[in-house]
Amino acid sequence: MAPLERVNLIRERLAEWRKGYPGVTRTTLDLMNYWRRDGREHRLFFAQLEAAETVIFLVEARADLRQGISVPLDEPSEAQQREKFKPFLRYALKMATGRGKTMVMGMLTAWSILNKVNDKSDARFSDSVLVICPNVTIRNRLGELDPKLGEASIYRTRDLVPPHMMADLTQGHLLVTNWHVFEPQSPQVSDTSARVIKAGKRIRTEETVTIGAKTTTARGRRYLTPEELQKQIAAGLLNVLAEEKDKQGNLKRVRVEAFRYIESDPALMNRVLGKEFREQAKHPGAQRRGASRLSNPPA
After folding, report:
1. Cα–Cα separations (whole angstroms), residue 66 to 7, 54, 113
2. pLDDT at 285 over 50
3. Residue 201 backbone dihedrals phi, psi, to 5 degrees
């Protein structure tokens, strides 16, 4: 096994930092002491404390304790750079199954929201939290992370936040959604996609189209009738690069340059985040229906 030098250095500094948590805000210190206090009914696992404290250390620890610790930015690929994607900072916590990932999510959510509510000018924190999960079942189970559930939320059922801090915590917003909603959609008019709308961002691809009796997609292949092919060429959605004909001279397959239009990045973010966060603020119970407690969700 290769030693993880950066991880080992962080753990070494983390142990030193725990002797009083130098550099943290008063809100953070209150949470740390609350999580580690004696006599807890729901005692936190060491893995949960270490995971949450690692992120907090990287954000708040005194500068001398973080000296020499550099977390590289998550760089976009060359193709993404051409699309003007920018690098961002990602903190990843690897936890084994059954170690309480939902608890860690709740701890970090409370830490961020409470600090932002207490100091709106501190850019290190946010009072809006996005949780992305793989499917609807897990999304429903993670509903307990919503602070607006009050005493039924994980912050009280698992004793992550003291009662006197709950009013501040409910000022934050949390959205639990599935990853697939971030797939860019094609613009539509009057709830129909029958009409081609040249709005948003233009995407170019190359593909092979088989000429058939009907327009469909099957087993990963795209089929177009001769009439539909000509229609899409006329609309500027396809540009034929190469043709393949059968012995009778009938068109069999075409290699095409295809164009489609999808929503812009700001439109996508407004659709997924803006609307959902506004709706949650208006109807806090909307995300709660069907929620159940899940201490250890799949990775």
Report:
1. 12, 11, 23
2. no
3. -100, 135
Residue range(s) defining the domain that contains residue 94: 5-182+272-282
Full-model pTM: 0.69
Which residues, in sequence order, are bridge partners of residue 221? 218
Assess contact for 58 and 111: CB atoms under 8 A: no
Instruction: Give start and end residues of each alpha helix (H) in the chain.
Output: 5-17, 26-36, 46-60, 63-66, 78-82, 101-118, 136-141, 154-157, 166-169, 226-234, 265-269, 275-282
The answer as to whether 26 is a domain residue is yes
> Are 123 and 211 members of one domain?
no
* Relative orientation angle of helices 46-60 and 101-118, to the nearest 10 degrees: 30
- Model pLDDT for residues 240-253, shown as the tens digit of each residue: 999 999 989 899 99
91-95, 197-201, 288-292: least confidently modelled range:
288-292
Spell out the alpha helix ranges (H) of 61-187.
63-66, 78-82, 101-118, 136-141, 154-157, 166-169
